[in-house]
Structures are given as C-alpha cells and as structure tokens.
Amino acid sequence: MARRPVVFAVLVLVTGVIIGMVLYSRAGFFGLTVPHVAAQSPSIYGIGIDEPAFTEGARPGVVALASDLRFIDSSPDTGQYILQALTTFPSFAVTVGVFFLLWRLLWRARAGVYLPQVAGQVRVVGWWLLAGGLLAPQIEYFAMMALLDTMTVNESYYGVKEIPLIVPLVGLGLLALANVLRTGVRMRDDLEGTV
C-alpha cells in the first residue's frame, strides 16, 4: 500500500518534466512539432549586413556582421526529424535521470545518511552525471552535424565538441562524497561493534 504514493509521485514528476520541456523548449517537443528542421553551421562567418534596419542603428565606424549560419529544410524526412530530436533529447534524458536518481537518494536518506544504500545511491548519481555530462553534448553535436550533412555539402565538422565542465565536475564531486559516506558507514559499523 505504501508503494502507491511513490509510484504516483514518480508519474507526476516525469509528467511535469515532459510537459515543462514541451512548453518551454524553443524547438517544441524535441523539434518534432514544427514543420521544418534547422541545423546551425559550426563555422563562424563574417557576413556584412547592408540592410538599413541594421546599419541605421549602428554608430559611425561600426559594421554590422552576421556570424551564425542556419540551414532550414521545410520538407524534412523521417531521418531528419530523428536527428533533430537527437539534438536535444540526450540532455533531457540526463536531466530526467538526475531528478529521478535524486528523488531515490532523498527517499533512501530519510532513515539516515550513513547507510550503505545512501552511499551507493550517491555513487550512482555521480556516475550518471559524469557519463551523461560527457556523452550528451557529444551525441547532440554529432546529431547536429549529421543533420547539417543532410542539408549541405562540406559544411559539417565531425570533431569533439567542447564539453561544459560543470556537470562532470559535480559528478566527480559526488563520487568523492560517496567514498566519504562509505568510509563513514564503515567507521559507524566499527564503533557499533566495539561498544
């Protein structure tokens, strides 16, 4: 009977996250609700803009340049839609996974912090953040370059994307915290054995 509120809470959390992503995503539901696909070039261009709307707003001696180049295909096929979804889905999966794992961690820690289950759950969250923080940006970048390949010739660049370090660093910090908690569990067990 106690599992019913837990299952309900998980369903509410997952539904809320999905609805939030749908409502606040700039590309709709992983880019699948718009009638076109868009890919951004990794190259930086210095294209001068001669439109009066931009040149009139600039001070004397200032030139208006456009550096980002986006390609939009208004008649995409299924493969392009899948690639567009992969440009946002990995980060979403990492985020939802972290929320779920943190919820499980808090649920297990209600009986105390220095328990083997809590240390194990902290280690799982740390590994999830470390792996997800390293892999998700690479998968999204590879999907963007593959999508760009379907629309252009010689525009994509299949290299390693620069990784934002905050997520892997938090993962490493949680792995270190898990080791501290595991040591605390051992020390507590030793103290209880001697008393």
Automatic annotation (TrEMBL):
<feature type="transmembrane region" description="Helical">
    <location>
        <begin position="81"/>
        <end position="103"/>
    </location>
</feature>
<feature type="transmembrane region" description="Helical">
    <location>
        <begin position="163"/>
        <end position="181"/>
    </location>
</feature>
<feature type="transmembrane region" description="Helical">
    <location>
        <begin position="7"/>
        <end position="25"/>
    </location>
</feature>
<feature type="transmembrane region" description="Helical">
    <location>
        <begin position="124"/>
        <end position="143"/>
    </location>
</feature>
<protein>
    <recommendedName>
        <fullName>DUF2975 domain-containing protein</fullName>
    </recommendedName>
</protein>
<keyword id="KW-0472">Membrane</keyword>
<keyword id="KW-1133">Transmembrane helix</keyword>
<keyword id="KW-0812">Transmembrane</keyword>
